[in-house]
Amino acid sequence: MTVHGPPPLAGYTVAVTAARRAEELGALLERRGARVVHAPAIRLVPLEDDAALQAATKSCLDRPPDVTIATTGIGFRGWLEAADGWGLGDDLRKRLSDSRLLARGPKARRAIRAAGLTEEWSPGSESMSEVLDHLLVQDLDGAHIAVQLHGEPLPDFVEALRTAGADVVTVPVYRWDRPADSTPMDRLLEQIVSGCIDAITFTSAPAVVSLLLHAKESGLEPALLDALRHRVLPVCVGPVTAAPLERRGVPAAQPDRPRLGNLARAVVEQLPARVGKRLQVRGHLLDVRSQAIAIDGTVVALPPALMAVMTTLAAQPGRVVSRRELLAALPGAGTDEHAVEMAVTRLRAALGDPTIVQTIVKRGYRLAYDPV
Prior knowledge:
By secondary structure, the chain is an alpha/beta fold. It has three domains: 13-44 and 179-275, Rossmann fold, CATH 3.40.50; 47-174, 3-Layer(aba) Sandwich (Rossmann fold); 277-367, Arc Repressor Mutant, subunit A (Orthogonal Bundle), CATH 1.10.10. The chain has 15 helices and 16 strands. It is elongated.
């Protein structure tokens, strides 16, 4: 008989910080078994209210750019739509048609073409670093370059162009602000530092920056960064989104292509390997996850106390773990070692095979580990 495995993310909790398409990403993760926590990290300010965008647009009309860089499809479309609202759309399209248009990725490329324009070049990696490399091999002395921002200032990118002699105008197509209600972010930070979140997803650099800033103001930045470096898997949709984390020494997982479906697959591919542990115990295949156990393909949800005992026993499978060690791992158990005996009894019942956890007289307990 074929044993089908459990959903790959069953027993894990994944946070979604997206402001846009959060429900879509959450559904993709839930279909793979994850428990999803939603905590929007940003809200977008309407374009028509953005005086900085209007000023940058007029600057491009007064002095047409030699090179225009479109970093996002939604941003490029939003720029043109905002210009239309100000009665500047036709003039802007004319200036951009005379400019060398570079598209960071396929979405930006499609937005350029939908506007009746044609891009000159687009990087295969969809990264701003490749765009910068492409430009820096050229003579940029005196060149006028417009950079459509995606929400974060890109200071290193802009400074490199200016150092090469270019005159750069940044076009802040949309800007982000804090969520009107910070309660979900407060709760998310508490869950991250207390070990209740296994992975956190980001679909934009501003969301990363907003969470880091909120943590700093809450006095939790060191704890957040430590969790992201060691216990919680950060997964970013692409290198632009990951940049604020990497500047703080936090490596982030990324999909091959910046798509929501690929982002969900990256969580599936990397989270179990980072957090989970697969063991052969008493002839059973035991998959120890963050908040559940899969036994021979069947997921068994465990309450926190039993999960704490199971995780402690599985940390060094086969080793005898003393009652004192298990007592220290039990949440709120105090000093009563009888709580350990009760937890082990309940754990054996939940696992369905009492021989999985062995009693070692006068020493403690161990998993009946079968090393392969």
